[in-house]
Structure formats: structure tokens, C-alpha cells
Amino acid sequence: MAYSYEPHYFEDMEVGKTFESAGRTVTESDFVFHSMFADDWTELHTNAEYSEDGPFGERIGHGPMTFILTTGMVQRCGFVERTVIAFLGMNYMDVPNPLTIGDTISAEFEVTEKKEFGSREDAGLVVIDADTRNQDDEILLQGDMKFMWRKRDYYTEDEREEMGLP
């Protein structure tokens, strides 16, 4: 695993390169903030009494919440800082197990594809597989993330400095 918290340019990303996030414990506040932001107050996520008798025996996080937390862990790793131009989507995302209050989660990321764009000289495509797990090593999310990644060699050192790039 690469524990680098430094930005990486397109040139630095190689297929097979891996990163590991720091852990994070999911709180009641996370559930409330996500419900407020998404305006999704489904009882399975917000009603303890209702959820206790439901299929999971407790409240569970929204599926998209697990994805959002995973994207935050990408950011915390630092390798995308100021070098990713855009998130371009996903080819797949699976959420096989529920996220619960009190789970401590972390993620591993692996570069699985890297290619030049035919339409841009300043950036390329990098695809990163994500694997988010809880403290019991249960998979909470698996998916890939497609990014438009800035090329270091396209800019001079002076241009990078002027743009505030590493």
C-alpha cells in the first residue's frame, strides 16, 4: 500500500498502484446530515423503533451515503489533491452490506486503468477501484471511479506554481 498523502499527477498513476485510507467511525450525526442533505428521511435510516423490527435490526445508512463516505476517503488520502480535474462517473458500484452507526470504515483504492484522452493534451483518464470495509472486514462498497487527471508534463513549473499546483 502507498501511504502517500501527496498529490499525484497522471504520470504518477500506474496500473496496480494502491492507496489505503485512514479509518473513520460513522456517527449518528453522519446519518442525520446525510438525510438532511439528500432530503431522504426514509424510516429505515431515521426511525430507531421502526428499524429495530426491520430486516437489519437497526437503522442502516443510505446506499449513496456509503459511496459519499468512500469519495471522502479518496480525498483524505491526498493523492487527488489539486491534480484531479473531474470525477467522470462509475462503471459499477455494489453495496452488498449495510453501513450502521458505530461502524469504523476504511477503504483501499487500486489504479486499474490509465489512458490518454484523444481530445485533451493536459489530462488523461485514470480508473480507480474502491473497496470499503467495516471493522469486521465486511465489504460495504465495491466500485470503480473514473477521474480526469491533470498531467504534470503539460505545464511548466512556473505555470504550475501560478495555478497553485504541487
From TrEMBL:
Domain of life of the organism encoding this protein: Archaea
Entry's transmembrane regions: none
MaoC-like domain residues: 15-118
Annotated Pfam families: MaoC_dehydratas (PF01575)
PANTHER family to which the protein is assigned, alphabetical: BETA-METHYLMALYL-COA DEHYDRATASE, MONOAMINE OXIDASE-RELATED
Annotated protein name in UniProt: Acyl dehydratase
